[in-house]
Amino acid sequence: MKALLIIFLVIVSLSAKTISHLATSYEACCPDTFIMDPAQMMCVCPPERSFLTADNKCVACTSPNLWNATLKQCLTCPANSWYDTNSQSCLSCPTGFVMNNSQCICPSSTPYLDSSNKCVGCPVSSWWDGTKKACSSCPNTYIYDSTKNACVCPPQASYVNSNNLCVACAAPGIWDSNTKQCGTCPVGNKYDFNHSLCICPSDHPYLDANNICVTCDPPNHWNIYKNVCEPCGKYEHYDNTTGTCVCCPPGFTFNQAALKCVCPPETPYFTSDKQCIACASPSVWNVKTLACVS
């Protein structure tokens, strides 16, 4: 019995060595990039290089590349598409979308996604309503101001009338905020076409507290703080040249730097009787007598 057991063990040992030798022989027979599959006793591509090319090479094809079974090549996905690891295929965006970081988004020209999942843009005078997922239009005569996120009157029709419509006032008409209508300039005013407003004419240049254009007859002057015509102050006199009140006596000018009244260059000499004069040639100015001498 012991002899039979010894003979069985020897046979099993020899068989294992034979199988191991055969596997090693088959492995050596496999081309480069292949491995031997002992179960099938044939050369196969290993899991890490599972794709067989047209020239019988085992290669790997990983994301973002895609294996093309027809061409037997590892290819990159076409433009505007990406490799999806779940389906192991190239996916592209639906019509109207663009790809951004492997995501489909609406382009800047049609940036909004409507209720039917289509990219749309809003025309002028409308805006995107996120709640309705649709473009909403401004009322008639209005335009949409994206900076204010509101409907406003356009510059060429900037007034809102009593019917809540944007209107313009044709020159020489002006807008009356009380009646909310276009009107005309008040009596005594004239229309300034350059600035599109009513102004006082040059012969009545001042607008008084009653909104009436008036003029100031000499020796009165216009007080810009009170909006009235009034006489010059106690220490002022009326200057016919400028039509204003000045603080220096006639013949003098006010030196702003020195803050005092001085003689002007054309009559530079100050006499003893407080007059500004000039000396006619050949006379000269005597600083002691404060007079012109020959």
Can you describe this structure?
The chain has 294 residues and is mostly beta strands. It has a domain at 169-199. 10% of the residues lie in helices and 34% in strands. It has one helix at 2-29, and strands spanning 35-37, 42-44, 51-52, 58-59, 65-68, 73-76, 81-84, 89-92, 98-100, 103-105, 112-113, 119-120, 126-129, 134-137, 143-145, 150-152, 159-160, 166-167, 174-176, 181-183, 190-192, 197-199, 206-207, 213-214, 220-223, 228-231, 237-239, 244-246, 253-255, 260-262, 269-270, 276-277, 284-286, 291-293. The strands form 17 sheets. A two-stranded antiparallel ribbon has the order 1-2. A hairpin with a 5-residue loop joins strand 31 (269-270) and strand 32 (276-277). The longest helix has 28 residues, at 2-29. The protein is elongated and about 140 Å long. The termini are far apart. 2% of the residues are buried.
